[in-house]
Specification:
Oligomer: single chain
Structural class: alpha/beta
CATH architecture of the largest domain: 3-Layer(aba) Sandwich
Number of domains: 2
Helix content: 25-40%
Strand order of the largest sheet: 7-8-9-4-10-11
Distance between the termini: 29 Å
Length: 334
């Protein structure tokens, strides 16, 4: 048995403005193998409090293994990790008291009602009956499950089960939540509803570590994204930072005046011309600096384009470039 859990001292990370902010989750040189198969080959993570961090990676990349280590479900072979200021190996009970975990597969018991699932979770958190009923009622209302609360959970739709799953995770009021593919198998409306729930959690100061097989989901929700490949972090940054790493971005100019088109083609460097549509394509990383340079050149020659569009690589391009994959990423077996 562990003794009383000491008040944690959170490690810090740096925001863009240079000020230190507490890191809810940190890992250094995290390693895990199964036999001869290396799943995690020395990964580093640092997740600021109150943010969404997404782990992306192809099949077998180790995303779920990382979540299992950080949530104390399995041990690492090497490296160190802290969650909510607690070492995952030395103080697993401290970690468990601070987190909530929603796995790939629902933890909902279909044989009992939604309300009974919630009350069971309240019992597991050692809440009094009165407090358990209060918390259950509040969360059922928050997740729009009041009407279905006394129906067997087996009758719930996929979206309702996922909402109930997250509601159960929140019974203990965790400040850090691990969401392992929370929207897999949901219809588009249910996915968007789930996105709204995640945003609401973060607005309340909760930290979310998200694994997902949907690149648009990471783009939509994550403050920072790490691409995991062959057990290593291939790249990490904001969605925009990752997109700028990949070649293929360009600015497209379209003209209706053939003379303006020809003059622009002569004034700009490295352009690809389309004489049929009177459009020019100029390689660009999409930055404000490069766009200003193009516009300054056009202004200097008194050339005005009828249409200007900026095209940057999306996360699909980033994923394929970093992992060499040809398929949409799927969750790791482990």
């Amino acid at each position: 048995m562990e003794g009383p859990v000491p008040s944690p001292t959170l490690p810090t990370s740096r925001r863009a403005n240079g000020h230190a902010s507490p890191a809810a989750v940190s890992a250094t040189d995290l390693r895990k193998s199964y036999g001869d198969k290396v799943v995690l080959d020395g990964i580093d993570l640092r997740i600021p409090s109150g943010s969404v961090f997404a782990l992306l990676g192809p099949n077998g990349a180790g995303k779920t293994t990382a979540v299992k280590i950080l949530s104390t479900l399995i041990g690492a072979d090497g490296g160190q990790a802290q969650v909510a200021g607690h070492d995952v190996a030395a103080s697993p009970n401290g970690v468990r008291a601070a987190i909530g975990v929603t796995g790939q597969f629902s933890a909902v018991d279909g044989l009992i009602t939604g309300e009974e699932n919630m009350l069971l979770m309240a019992d597991l958190h050692h809440l009094s009956k009165r407090e358990g009923r209060r918390v259950a009622a509040e969360l059922l209302e928050r997740f729009d499950l009041v009407e279905a609360a006394r129906k067997p959970a087996s009758t719930y739709s996929g979206g309702m089960k996922r909402r109930l799953d997250i509601a159960m995770t929140l019974v203990g009021n965790p400040r850090i939540i691990f969401l392992d593919e929370p929207t897999t198998g949901l219809d588009p409306r249910s996915r968007h509803n789930m996105w709204g729930i995640i945003r609401e959690l973060v607005s309340d100061g909760v930290t979310v570590l998200l694994t997902t097989q949907y690149l648009d989901e990471a783009d939509e929700l994550a403050d920072r994204i790490a691409v995991l490949h062959d057990g290593k972090i291939a790249a990490e940054g904001t969605a925009e930072e990752l997109k700028r790493m990949i070649p293929g971005g360009h600015v497209r100019l379209r003209f209706t005046d053939p003379r303006a088109y020809e003059r622009a083609a002569a004034a700009l460097h490295g352009v690809t011309c389309d004489d049929e549509t009177l459009s020019l394509q100029i390689p660009s990383d999409g930055s404000q600096r490069e766009l200003r340079s193009i516009l300054d050149l056009l202004d200097a020659e008194a050339i005005e384009a009828d249409e200007l569009t900026v095209h940057t690589p999306d996360l699909d391009d980033v994923f394929f470039a970093l992992t060499g994959g040809t398929d949409q990423p799927k969750e790791a077996v482990r």
